UniProtKB/TrEMBL annotation:
<dbReference type="InterPro" id="IPR011530">
    <property type="entry name" value="rRNA_adenine_dimethylase"/>
</dbReference>
<dbReference type="InterPro" id="IPR020598">
    <property type="entry name" value="rRNA_Ade_methylase_Trfase_N"/>
</dbReference>
<feature type="domain" description="Ribosomal RNA adenine methylase transferase N-terminal">
    <location>
        <begin position="35"/>
        <end position="211"/>
    </location>
</feature>
<feature type="binding site">
    <location>
        <position position="30"/>
    </location>
    <ligand>
        <name>S-adenosyl-L-methionine</name>
    </ligand>
</feature>
<dbReference type="GO" id="GO:0003723">
    <property type="term" value="F:RNA binding"/>
</dbReference>
<keyword id="KW-0963">Cytoplasm</keyword>
<dbReference type="GO" id="GO:0005829">
    <property type="term" value="C:cytosol"/>
</dbReference>
<feature type="binding site">
    <location>
        <position position="28"/>
    </location>
    <ligand>
        <name>S-adenosyl-L-methionine</name>
    </ligand>
</feature>
<feature type="binding site">
    <location>
        <position position="55"/>
    </location>
    <ligand>
        <name>S-adenosyl-L-methionine</name>
    </ligand>
</feature>
<keyword id="KW-0694">RNA-binding</keyword>
<dbReference type="InterPro" id="IPR001737">
    <property type="entry name" value="KsgA/Erm"/>
</dbReference>
<dbReference type="GO" id="GO:0052908">
    <property type="term" value="F:16S rRNA (adenine(1518)-N(6)/adenine(1519)-N(6))-dimethyltransferase activity"/>
</dbReference>
<dbReference type="InterPro" id="IPR023165">
    <property type="entry name" value="rRNA_Ade_diMease-like_C"/>
</dbReference>
<comment type="similarity">
    <text>Belongs to the class I-like SAM-binding methyltransferase superfamily. rRNA adenine N(6)-methyltransferase family. RsmA subfamily.</text>
</comment>
<keyword id="KW-0489">Methyltransferase</keyword>
<dbReference type="InterPro" id="IPR029063">
    <property type="entry name" value="SAM-dependent_MTases_sf"/>
</dbReference>
<dbReference type="Pfam" id="PF00398">
    <property type="entry name" value="RrnaAD"/>
</dbReference>
Length: 275
């Protein structure tokens, strides 16, 4: 029996192509097309956009993106075993899906925009999710080519992305994402939704690039957040010593006795601008 999109159910796809999940590739598959449809709909409208999906695996989210109107979808998958399943989806939606075997960490997604607004949608492999997000946020020039990213992370990572100052999850990731994007958690997905189930809850996060983030050099902001959060329990006059310590803080009108986790994104930018 086929699924509502006319393709085989995802469990049959796993069996047909021998896709037993590999932990090293962060393979926790979503086999419920209702759920992948819910994720895809967060990225609407898809028509008229270029869409990039990282790690399509057997194609549950890929199919949902196509069923919800994606006309120019590029998927990047490291596991060559998935390519047969993806080719079958491409044949079902002629001219709309390009599957690339490759490493997303070495792929510049901007290359797939082709003059259209670019949306990134993915159930990311948990082991490289943070690195990929930082690659997309810490690009040399801003605004980036992508106009929206809808991404599944482990809940704990999602909380670190959207964290506010003074909370335990607030750190380098929140400052960099808060500086250049508006990020929000859309909904949680329990472990039971995945095959195999991970140990923790996941969350879908959506990010939109800010048109005009505070104008400071990326390297300076990275340096000040790395130093501050590298020793987050210490007062800033101590943790920022290599960058100018107390004198730098006083010039930025920030008390040297404060700790990194109490500083707003704007205050980090003030420090970065003085480096
Ligand atoms: N999108 C599918 C789903 O929702 O069922 C699979 C998601 S699974 C969490 C992550 C996928 O990313 C796997 O298919 C895995 O093979 C792929 N992957 C892992 N590392 C990758 C990398 N460096 N580049 C591209 N894909 C990668």
């Amino acid at each position: 029996m086929s699924a509502p999109d006319g393709l085989p159910p995802l469990r049959a796809v796993l069996a047909e192509y021998g896709l037993d999940p590999k932990k090293a590739l962060g393979q926790n598959f979503l086999l419920d097309l209702n759920l992948t449809g819910r994720i895809a709909r967060q990225a609407l409208p898809l028509a008229g956009c270029s869409v990039v999906e990282i790690g399509p695996g057997p194609g549950g989210l890929t199919r949902a993106l196509l069923a919800n109107g994606a006309e120019h979808l590029t998927v990047i998958e490291k596991d060559s075993r998935c390519l047969g399943a993806l080719a079958a989806i491409a044949a079902h939606y002629p001219g709309r899906l390009t599957a690339i075997e490759g490493d997303a960490l070495k792929t510049d997604v901007a290359a797939f925009a082709e003059g259209r607004p670019l949306k990134i949608v993915a159930n990311l492999p948990y082991n490289i999710g943070t690195q990929l997000l930082l690659d997309w946020v810490a690009v040399p020039s801003w605004p980036p080519v992508w106009s929206e990213a809808t991404l599944m992370f482990q809940r704990e990572v999602a909380e670190r992305i959207v964290a506010k100052p003074g909370t335990s999850h607030y750190g380098r990731l929140a400052v960099l994402c808060g500086w250049r994007t508006k990020a929000s958690i859309l909904f949680d997905v329990g472990p039971e939704a995945f095959t195999p189930p991970p140990k923790v809850t996941s969350s879908v996060v959506q990010l939109h690039p800010l048109a005009e983030p505070i104008d400071v050099p990326l390297e300076a902001l990275e340096a000040v957040t790395a130093a501050g959060f590298g020793q987050r329990r210490k007062m800033l006059r101590q943790s920022l010593k290599p960058l100018g310590g107390e004198a730098l803080l006083l010039r930025a009108d920030i008390s040297p006795q404060r700790r990194a986790e109490t500083l707003s994104v704007e205050e980090f930018c003030r420090l970065a601008a003085l480096l």
